[in-house]
Design a protein that fits this description.
Structural class of chain A: alpha+beta
Largest sheet of chain A: 7 strands, mixed
Structural class of chain B: alpha+beta
Number of helices of chain B: 2
Number of strands of chain B: 6
Oligomer: heterodimer
CATH class of the largest domain in chain A: Alpha Beta
Radius of gyration of chain B: 14 Å
Strand content of chain A: 25-35%
Order of helices and strands of chain B: EEEHEEEH
Pfam family, one (chain B): SoxD
Strand content of chain B: 35-45%
InterPro entries (chain B): SoxD, SoxD_sf
Protein name (chain B): Sarcosine oxidase subunit delta
Mean pLDDT of chain B: 93
Distance between the termini of chain B: 32 Å
CATH superfamily of chain B: Folate-binding superfamily
Helix content of chain B: 10-25%
Shape of chain A: elongated
Family (chain A): Belongs to the GcvT family.
Number of domains of chain B: 1
Distance between the termini of chain A: 99 Å
Largest interface: A-B, 26 and 32 residues
CATH topology of chain B: Folate-binding fold
CATH topology of the largest domain in chain A: FAD/NAD(P)-binding domain
Strand order of the largest sheet of chain B: 3-4-5-6
Low-confidence stretches of chain A: 1-6
CATH architecture of chain B: 2-Layer Sandwich
Mean pLDDT of chain A: 92
Low-confidence stretches of chain B: none
InterPro entries (chain A): 2Fe-2S-bd_N, BFD-like_2Fe2S-bd_dom_sf, FAD/NAD-bd_sf, FAD/NAD-binding_dom, GcvT/YgfZ/DmdA, GcvT/YgfZ_C, GcvT_C, GCVT_N
Number of helices of chain A: 23
Amino acid sequence: MRDLSDTETAPRLTQGGRIDRSRPLTFTFDGRTLTGFAGDTLASALLANGIHLAGRSFKVHRPRGLVGHRENEPNALMRLGTGDRLTPNLPATLVELTDGLVAESQNRWPSLKYDLQAASGLLKPMFPAGFYYKTFMWPAAFWEKLYEPAIRRAAGLGRATTAPDPDRYERGFKHCDLLVVGAGPAGLTAALWAGRAGLHVILADQDSELGGSLLTERSTIDGEPASLWVDRVAGELARLDTVEVMPRTSVFGYYDHNILGAVERLPTAEHGARERYWRIEAGRVTLAAGALERPIPFPDNDRPGIMLASAVRAYLNRWAVRTGTRAVVFANNDDGFSTARDLSQAGIAVTLVDSRADAELPRALTGLEVTLHRGRTIVGSKGRHRVSAVTLDDGTRLPCDLVAVAGGWNPVVNLHSQTGARPRWDSIRDCFVPGQPRQNESSVGACAGRFTTAEAIQDGAHAAVEAIRALGKPVPELDLPVPEDPPAGRGEALWYVGGRDSHTFLDPQHDVTVADVKLAHREGYRSVEHMKRYTTLGMATDQGRFGNVNGMAVMAEARGLSVAEVGTTTFRPPYTPVSVGALAGRKRQRTFMPLRRSPLHDWAADRGAIFAEAGLWQRSRAFPQAGESLREAAFRETTQTRTHVGICDVSTLGKIDIQGPDAPELLNRVYTNGWKRLAVGRARYGLMLREDGHVMDDGTTSCLAEGHYHMTTTTGQAPKVMSHLEWCLQALWPELDVQVQSVTDQWAGLAVAGPNSRALLQRLLPGVDLSNAAFPFMGVGRYALAGGVPLRLFRISFSGELAYEVNVPADYGPALADKLLELGEDLGAIPYGLEALDVMRIEKGHVTAGELDGRTTAADLGMAGLMSSKKDFIGRVLAQRPGMADPSRPRLVGLQCADGDERIRAGSHLLPTGTQTTIDFDEGWVSSATWSPTFGRHIALGFLKNGGERMGEVVRAVDLVRGHDVQVEVVSPHFYDPEGTRQRG
Amino acid sequence: MRIPCPVCGARPSEEFTYRGDARPVRPPMDSSDQGAWVDYLFFRDDERGRIKEQWQHTGGCRAWIVVDRDTATHAVHGSELARDAAEGGQA
């Protein structure tokens, strides 16, 4: 164990880097308290504490260390937080270090160092490619009882909490002329020049700091350290009014019409929110997301301490962390030289293993003690929890505690590919580069395979000029800075080092090896899309960022094709993991959907109402008195209404105001029955069909004045009916001179039902003659209350009683309800709710949502008589299709318990008596059921084959789910007052 | 997607409700030809490429519109009010 107090060998350098040594931060990792500095990521802080071992692999639980420094980290997936605030599977490289951060490694038990399941590392042959699919083929019983539970325990990445998320998330829209994704040299240049020209620019980068690769490399621009140029540009961008700089913002999805999804992480909870999901609508998009270094997989390449060279340089240059004391750099290109230079200058002994036979140490390395093994590869490594030595193909053994691997670069073509564009293989640079754009976007710099800083700056400027020209604005004079790049020679393709393929890892997260890809090839999974799914290469959080291109090259080799010919897999959003909370935003719990409340909601709540959800609406179910259950309240309200008078909030019914000379013609076309002769001051029941002939909705429509109608719909279908009428008037019959307007929210509605309802309303409207002769059933009147408050009175009944519906402007609803109860006190007036309303309509045989379920015809409902034969209406022709007109279809019937007092359940199937209980004998169903306080027994409505001809027959109502099987008698659905004398009296 | 509403301008597609292919022609009201109605209501070509579609701006001005959209690329080439399309079609 090294002495960490020894500054000569301590991982953290005493100077340099972009960390703030004056601001130490304390955090815990697996229960150990550690310190880092402001500017650290969790990954750099762990390495600064000498910690490489950061996770266990998914299948075989091998110890795994930090490999990358960006979103390409496959191993160090952490669970962050405590209690309710737990976020699993976050790469430590993308977590900004904060004071008090609590991080835990995943996928290990009991501890990271002594993982018991690591024994399965010896059993790697147990988990070959296609393991899941092959296992599924085994006997199903074995799978369920044995394999699945075992695998579920062993597998899976981190675990989330099941507690509700205490944090808040927000969601917003942004628009811009130019969205620049990535704030490296290319992105900064594009944003700067476009911003100077006055374009509305959004510059987004997932990092907490702008600069991209300039932060991690020792490059210079205009002769000074590149970080000074970055700071100057960042300063100017902050001053430009039209430029919005969004650090800590991951653009993860690229959708149609240049709409992109981004998640902004808020370092300190702003207004209580932790993350914001932005939907960005961009005129143009410049993709400057850079490139990710790829590995050179070699046997035993998964030991902690074996890292990507770019990450080794980044930790050293940006975070002042020496990731080892004795390094082997393994490269197939010139990045090996800059890695060797940076490490050597930091006092680390370096041996460079270059696969190129003609590699020559450049002048930059003159005077540094770097040993070069040219034309050599690494064929093995040693070490338990940390690499301790590597072996070269010539047998040379090199002791080391760090291996920096530089295998070339993969441009981040993911967002480009998400648009449906096809990346193409660049055989000069050996990488996939963006292809023909499908949207208004271009890729620049390393993101386009142009890896030098000079190319990045040129590309960024070019993208800005294109965007400025596209908007017809004057292009500012370009005065581009001059970076100094190390001379880059051509690397050679080296996709993996052969030898022991089963120990040569392409995807350390999923333990996918070169052998697995070759096995997939032998077993016929040769398309890269098939191979990916068969081997799980690059799945889950990795999304192909680490070893996918290497894997495709292995497949290409096995098939005897080029990488260009086997192609790449399709990239889909999200590019990096996005928390579900951010996508949901505020659409959760109470704010998941809009909530609709009747104007009488508070009035009902004050009177002890229990509410029920009906779609978006909250409706009062019943008004229980002290000691009363909901059922008892509903039955009391039913009886009181039937014997005296009750008032019920029916404000949620859809109300549509229809005006215009052609209004009767519209009604005639959308309803099945005739409307041309409806007189002013009269209401009529109507049935509306869909084009396919099924019933869409029912309701009453009243003629308020010549050319002025008031339509009501069921609560649930109101939006659909409104849209339907708009469709009819705009698309089908624009020649009709009619206007429709939803007025559901404008009017409060109260049903006043019961034998005393006339007397009650007479007290409210003393000057109006409400006698049966003057105001008969289906009569309509418009009056004014004191102060001129308009009131509409409709004599319609849903309960079967003498009843009215009263509408007043919404805000007057509670006052009217109070007044009615006050005026009706000696008449026995009470409020009743949805439950009593439902009981009474079942007793009366009126249909509602349970019967109008979108599958029933007018004839099924016993309303064939409402289908006019004298006019054309929507649904007329298709309602006559043989299947729709079949007389043996299930028809609406009433059902009552044949003997005893057993409950009938809605949803039961109707079967004849004396048959087996199978679907073959199914003859219908129960649509609505209730206990009837009026008749003192259970009754129901249902649909029964040939129902009209089976009155008096006994059938079974069977509910196998809830274990009910009752004998029911088929009766008329009109249990209550079938002649209608009460409602007409 | 963004859908251009002739009344409100380009708006997010979430504000709109999709109905379907705008090209099938509804038989005349007085037609009793079941086959014609079945064709109109149930049969669609599901073409790849530019087609006319019906959408309603339900979260906006409530206009029914006809959108010229490419089903393969989702590119939108324009839109008009269903009312204008219907009147144009009859003329």
